[in-house]
Amino acid sequence: MALARVHTRDRAHSEPRPRLACLAHGAGRRPYTKELMMRILLLLAILLAAPLPYAAETWPEIGWDALLPKDWDPAADFKNLDLSNLQDSDPKAMEALDKLKVAWDTAPAEPAMNGKRGRIAGFVLPLERQGEKVTAFLIVPYFGACLHTPPPPANQIIHAKSARPLAGVRMMQPLWTYGTFSVQRGETEWGVAGYRLVVDKVVPYEEPRRK
Questions:
Q1: Residues near 88 by Cβ (< 8 Å), separated by ≥ 6?
Q2: Per-residue DSSP letters for the chain?
Q3: How far from chain centre, in Å, is Cα 70?
Q4: What is the phi/psi pair of residue 92, to 5°?
Q5: Organism's domain of life (predicted)?
Q6: How big is the chain by its Cα radius of gyration, in Å?
């Protein structure tokens, strides 16, 4: 495709100039060369190939139901037990509670969560600190979980670890935690966690605005 030509005022006595040469012509301007054009094209190719800034911030939201295997029934072993007729001091009630704790501590994890990247909202229980900052904490689905007996099932407790100490993380604070999940069981002072989460960042949780 021929470049458009720009003529000087006296068309009869002047040679036409290519548009690029005309744009580059003038005091203090560097003329376009093949080498310069190649550099510009290379820079454009790099910019177009680079991921957009917001693409790295796309974190799918993960609900607590996603942590439950579809074929797992938390009440399967207790369907024939009528707890309403038992007193707290009743040996049968205590036996049922012990059985429930064992069943929930061994609750299976969802294999599809292994290696999954996303964000989850929950309440935190700090585990490890560096000074005033937190490096490890549990994430649970409801306020007061793990502070009472029994704790939630293992597949509803996440053991989160951050390589960077986090400031302002308090007991039972609601947070969005961003990171990568793995199916890894571990015992903690507050309960058995069925998942590990390598933390990328945390953000304070805010209630969604009503429309």
A1: none
A2: -PPPEE--S-GGGS--EEHHHHHH-STT-PPP-HHHHHHHHHHHHHHHHSPPGGGGG---B--GGGGS-TT--TTGGGTT--GGG--TT-HHHHHHHHHHHHHHHTPPP-GGGTT-EEEEEEEEEEEEEETTEEEEEEEESSTTTTTSSSPPPGGG-EEEEEEEEETT--TT-EEEEEEEEEEEEEEETTEEEEEEEEEEEEEE--PPPP-
A3: 23
A4: -65, -35
A5: Bacteria
A6: 31
Per-residue pLDDT of the chain (211 residues; tens, 9 = 90+): 443 433 434 444 444 443 333 333 444 444 546 565 555 555 445 544 544 443 445 899 999 999 999 999 887 777 777 767 767 677 877 787 788 889 999 999 999 999 999 999 999 999 999 999 999 999 999 999 888 767 999 999 999 999 999 999 999 999 999 999 999 999 999 999 999 999 999 999 987 777 6
Q: Where are the domains of the chain?
A: 14-49, 64-72+107-204
Which CATH number describes the domain made up of 64-72+107-204?
A: 2.40.50.870
pTM above 0.85? no
Single-letter code of the amino acid located at 137: F
The residue written with tokens 């720009």 in the block is 6
